[in-house]
Design brief:
392 residues; alpha/beta; Rossmann fold; Dihydrodipicolinate Reductase, domain 2; 31% helix; globular
């Protein structure tokens, strides 16, 4: 059966939906209120109907939809689609507030409509290799995971549009950090319950060169030659999110984790360290050409016992996008287990929100709230049993 797919949002990630075309799907329409949406939609999808909002898109008759709109719109749009019986691929993060994320999960549970959240890093080769090496027992029982994220393109990606505003994005420990928090949760097989954090706006807040970029997309202002970060021009008029952040996490299992994120480094990559009772893993580079090193005996830094080349993802997470979309299409058609999970997406957001509260309140420790047990069970079993109708 050919899937009829709608796309909500004609922004920088809209082209993701085209990856479904390789799996017997067709794009039947795009929803976007922006005045330039028609031009953007045609660039991504050709001559398709462009409607002003997702409700009009639903009326075109959809089997599934990709929600790639701004993050603060995710919860409302996705809930409307789910209530209409439209299986939904929701670009991460699931929402920008814990309450909104919980509302999306609750709507998916009540409607029985399939929800998929695009945490594509679970399909990145470096992450999958780390996961496989841990599962093989090469480091014993995992006790600590550390992640350093050098966001070399941070000024272009997050400080020239709405991502720079707390009221839209909450903070970058959520918006950017949700990826890595989710990865650490997946590698540990557990989720965060207690956090403390510290952060500041150290570089971009002092830059006076501001302008309204709302009529443009990332590709129109992105300039990889813009370094040092203090020389960037055309930043968002409002900048009040942190550009340097650090958080500490205690997971349910007792694993301790840390995450450090900087948006003004010259290099752009992620470095994971996994420490267990019998060894340590660490990646150097996170794409084709990089390597994962394993230490299982005492020795100096250069004396790794084994090295595992990283294959794939030479063009960023393009390979992972293909795998993630393929998994979504298979899930829509057949159901069954998926490597991504909306519950995990919610837990990553919840940890990022709690850490943001901590860093803005003098590093006060924060507890991360749990999902209601029946909701958690529904997603742990991969939405396999449709919920009973809810009568109001």
């Amino acid at each position: 059966m050919t899937l009829r797919i709608g796309v909500v949002g004609a922004g920088a990630r809209a082209g993701l939906a085209n990856r479904a075309l390789a799996h017997d799907a067709v794009i039947v329409g795009v929803a976007d209120p922006h005045p330039h949406a028609q031009r953007r939609a045609r660039r991504h999808f050709g001559d398709v109907p462009v409607v002003p909002d997702h409700r009009a898109l639903i009326e075109l008759g959809l089997d599934a939809a990709f929600v790639v709109s701004p993050d603060d719109t995710h919860a409302t749009i996705t809930s409307d689609l789910l209530r209409s019986g439209v299986a939904t691929y929701l670009e991460k993060p699931i929402a920008t507030r814990i309450s909104d994320a919980d509302s999306v999960l609750n709507t998916a549970y009540k409607s029985g409509t399939k929800l998929y959240v695009g945490h594509n890093m679970r399909h990145m080769h470096v992450v999958r290799q780390l996961h496989q090496l841990i599962d093989a027992g090469l480091v014993g029982d995992v006790k600590a995971i550390w992640c350093r994220h050098f966001v070399g393109h941070g000024g272009d990606y997050y400080f020239r549009d709405w991502h720079a505003e707390r009221k839209r994005a909450t903070g970058l420990l959520l918006q950017k950090g949700a990826h890595d928090i989710d990865v650490m949760h997946w590698l540990a097989g557990s989720v965060t319950r207690e956090v403390t954090a510290m952060g500041d706006l150290m570089v971009y807040g002092a830059n006076p060169d501001r302008r309204d970029n709302s009529s443009e997309l990332l590709g129109e202002w992105f300039d990889p030659s813009g370094y040092p970060a203090t020389t960037l021009t055309g930043l968002n008029p409002v900048i009040d999110v942190e550009d340097l952040s650090m958080m500490l996490m205690r997971l349910d299992s007792g694993v301790l984790a840390s995450y450090q994120q900087c948006h003004f480094t010259p290099d752009y990559w992620r470095n994971y360290t996994v420490i267990g009772t019998h060894g340590r893993l660490e990646n150097f580079g996170d794409s084709e050409g990089g390597v994962i090193k394993l230490w299982r005996r005492r020795g100096a830094f250069l004396s790794a016992d084994e090295e595992f080349p990283i294959r794939g993802d030479a063009a960023g997470h393009s390979d992972a996008d293909d795998l993630t979309v393929a998994e979504f299409v298979r899930f829509v058609r057949e159901g069954g287990p998926t490597d991504t999970n909306p519950l995990g997406a919610r837990d990553a957001v919840a940890a990022g929100v709690a850490a943001t509260v901590s860093l803005r309140t003098g590093s006060t420790p924060q507890r991360v709230p749990r999902v209601e047990p029946h909701i958690a069970d529904y997603f742990r079993t991969h939405q396999g049993v449709k919920a009973a109708p809810v009568h109001t």
